[in-house]
Specification:
about 550 residues; about 10% strand; 22 helices; globular; alpha/beta; 8-stranded parallel sheet
Length: about 550
């Protein structure tokens, strides 16, 4: 019976076990239930031991059918010993418990996509495994969440795309500031030590500030030459509200929270960034906005306005590009510099209980060689900037942030020293920026945009009807391959809205439900199309 279970669920493992002799039973590490257990969707256990972790987590596991318990083992002898233990049969029979030999992180996060995960150990764990797992899961989760909750992003995209005719095209500024020094400001706690030096750079370098940094700089009387914001979430308005009446050129991506524009009174700059998902890309193609996007070569771990500013300054031709206030760590227990909303007294405690992979609080060696409190997403951001700088030589990149995480391969130089070395020439940069953006209008009309939106809106209604018919056909005939079903699927895929909005939903839903493979295929298909219908209904509510 045990061999049959093993062959059914893990045929490759059953074959490899033929060459294993088993091993001594090793005592498993003391197990403490993870913090905020109820929020977790997937728990990984490094080392299978005798499967005692299963006994402790079985109740949690079976409370929701979507949960998964995943044992990771890289020693075949340990698996052989486990199979002779008291919990082997129950674990093999439990379709929510899984055993993986070897550690292929790409395969794991695709097999168990989830936002709230935890790694626990039954034996000594490689020190970097948890961080690597959280990073992989974070990148994939961002992609899947965008597809499954695209109606939320669409609420921003629709009004923002309509702003394009009155904006300048930021991408067309490429190469127009060759060898001009640029200072990218972050809102980290160490920004305070750079304020005096920044006030000397009005005519010596281009100053960039994004998101909450605009508020931090305004509080200290520093006005950058370019502002930028990308964040689609409501918090972005609160972070930027102290910087209200932003008169400088303000660069935006279509994903930005629309209410932020009420804080801007200067020229708006449209950025093609490939951060608005499938519909943004489709609209840009139809509107003839074909210039190379800014940012994709930052990689899939770059989520922030700081990384986008680094890419934008590079595209402009700026060099050196100097980063200041980009701590990417809780310097002095604080997330932000003065002038940005924050309750530092409860922040670190709250983050210590966080289960979202990208927001996990970790300790990592910082620029000065001591351990700092940072977040998974900040480690990803630091590495993204490091990799980008390495790819874009001979542009010079300098880290002038006094404390924090730092950037591998990007040398540190105090800001004042960098200014003395590189910022020699004096020029009216505000006038030069104004002249440059005047020559880069967006060449799209409001009518073009409205016409495309009307076409997609009508088609999306048809898609909703077709999905209802597909579900009815599946439930009525109980066949997966009827002739009528084939025609309905073809009709669906030929709709303009499918091309513009829906083509990624099916593959993502397949991945999300793969762990439920023990359920009949027909039931999974019906569930998938019902979920797709719900998503389309949400999208339709935004188009109305």
């Amino acid at each position: 019976m045990m061999n049959e279970l093993l062959l059914e669920r893990y045929p490759d493992l059953a074959f490899l076990l033929k060459f294993s002799q088993g091993d001594k039973i090793k005592r498993e590490a003391h197990f403490t239930l993870p913090v905020n257990l109820e929020k977790l969707e997937v728990i990984y256990v490094y080392g299978i031991g005798m499967g005692l972790h299963y006994k402790e987590l079985k109740s949690w596991l079976h409370q929701k059918k979507e949960r998964a318990l995943v044992f990771l083992e890289d020693d075949m002898n340990c698996i052989a010993s486990f199979l002779n233990g008291p919990h082997a049969r129950e674990i093999l029979q439990d379709r929510q418990a899984h055993i993986h030999f070897g550690i292929n992180l790409d395969e794991l996060v695709l097999s168990y996509p989830a936002k709230h995960i935890e790694l626990v150990s039954a034996k000594k764990c490689p020190p970097t495994l948890a961080l690597k797992l959280y990073r992989k899961a974070s990148s994939l989760n961002a992609l899947f969440s965008e597809v499954l909750y695209y109606h939320k992003l669409l609420e921003n995209l629709l009004p923002n795309i309509k702003r394009a005719p009155k904006a300048f095209f930021g991408n067309k500024l490429a190469g127009q500031f060759k060898n001009v020094p640029a200072v990218i400001c972050g809102a980290g706690p160490s920004l305070a030590s750079s304020i005096a030096a920044l006030k000397t750079l009005e005519n010596k370098a281009l100053i960039f500030a994004g998101g909450s940094t605009l508020s931090a700089l305004k509080a200290k009387g520093v006005t950058p030459h370019f502002g930028m914001a990308l964040d689609p979430n409501p918090e972005e308005y609160l972070r930027l509200e102290p910087a209200a009446d932003i008169k400088i050129p303000f660069l935006y991506a279509n994903r930005l929270l629309p209410s932020v524009f009420s804080l801007c009174s200067g020229p708006l700059g449209y950025l093609r960034t490939d951060t608005g998902g499938i519909f943004e890309s489709w609209m840009e193609e139809k509107l003839g906005i074909t210039e190379e996007a800014i940012g994709p070569d930052l990689g899939n771990e770059a989520f922030s306005v700081t990384t986008m500013q680094v890419a934008f300054a590079t595209i402009l031709g700026c060099s050196p590009i100097i980063l200041t206030g980009v701590d990417l760590a809780f310097t002095g227990g604080k997330r932000y510099s003065e002038g940005v909303m924050e309750d530092s007294s409860v922040l670190l405690k709250k983050l210590s209980e966080e289960t979202r992979v990208e927001e996990r609080l970790i300790k990592k060696k910082g620029r000065k060689g001591h351990f700092v409190n940072t977040l998974v997403k900040w480690v990803m951001e630091s590495d993204a900037i490091s990799a980008y700088a390495k790819k874009h030589k001979p542009t010079i990149y300098i880290n002038a942030t006094e404390d924090g995480l730092g950037f591998k391969g990007v040398p540190f130089m105090p800001l004042q020293e960098a200014i003395s070395k590189y910022c020699h020439k004096t020029e009216n940069f505000r006038g030069r920026v104004q002249s440059a953006i005047a020559k880069c209008p967006m060449r799209v009309s409001a009518r073009q945009i409205e016409k495309l939106l009307e076409e997609v809106g009508k088609s999306l209604k048809i898609c909703e009807t077709l999905l209802e018919k597909i579900i009815l056909e599946l439930e009525t005939t109980r066949f997966l391959d009827s002739g009528k079903l084939l025609i309905l699927r073809i009709d669906l895929e030929e709709e303009i809205a499918f091309d513009a909005l829906l083509q990624q939903i099916g593959p993502v839903l397949d991945k999300m439900t793969a762990r439920l493979s023990h359920q009949p295929h027909l039931n999974r298909e019906i569930s998938k199309y019902k979920e797709m219908l719900t998503i389309v209904q949400h999208l339709n509510s935004v188009f109305i």
